[in-house]
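Go through this chain.

——
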Amino acid sequence: MQQVSFPYEIVIGEDCSTDDTRRIVTEYRDRYPEVIRAFLRERNIGMNANCIATLRACKGRYVAMLEGDDYWLPAEKLQKQIDFLEAHPEFAICAGHARVSYEVNVGEPWEHAISKRLVFQLDDLLRENFIPTCTATFRLGLLLEFPAWYEKLAFGDWPLHVLVAQHGDIGVLPETLAVYRVHAGGTWINLNRDQVIRAITDFYDSVASYLPPRYATLIESLKSDVARRYSGHVSIPPIA
């Protein structure tokens, strides 16, 4: 559905799904071999390792993330985001708002509006993972390496955004760009309160060891407040 003025590729990391995903991916790859490159893992390597391997296979200047259970809305989504990044070289990431849709009986759909602000920095991102992954588009060349701890974390989107945001600002387009689907098979929704707190604490410990020392005081303060901030179960990892 995307209408763009530039060439693009669709790079898919298929990590031994237990449903019908592999057959569908293979059929689309065979129909559109000039656009789709599919990496069909011989064994399940895990969510974050699959993410790293798939990103490393990308050849473009920019990457737009889209996990298998989400989808984009406007046909101009990619064009708008690439135009923004081309016009603003000081920005590392371009994101937008997402519509949260539940396929489990826990609530009505709602718009995940980040805020009225249009520009954010790394400090803001450390306080809260306000970027819906299905709206994230970033400069691929900024990811020169992945630290060893990345694969071990319980979620991959927040640390990925942090790694990229070290190198520039985060711009937000004030419109709904995608739908984030919450369903019973999702990884995050199946964690209990203690697992959520442990996962976020591990994240803070990991980024504290990686980022420059000037972020240490902020991260320590955020880590000490994790239990209060995430005392209720959350459906978008890891937004309070």
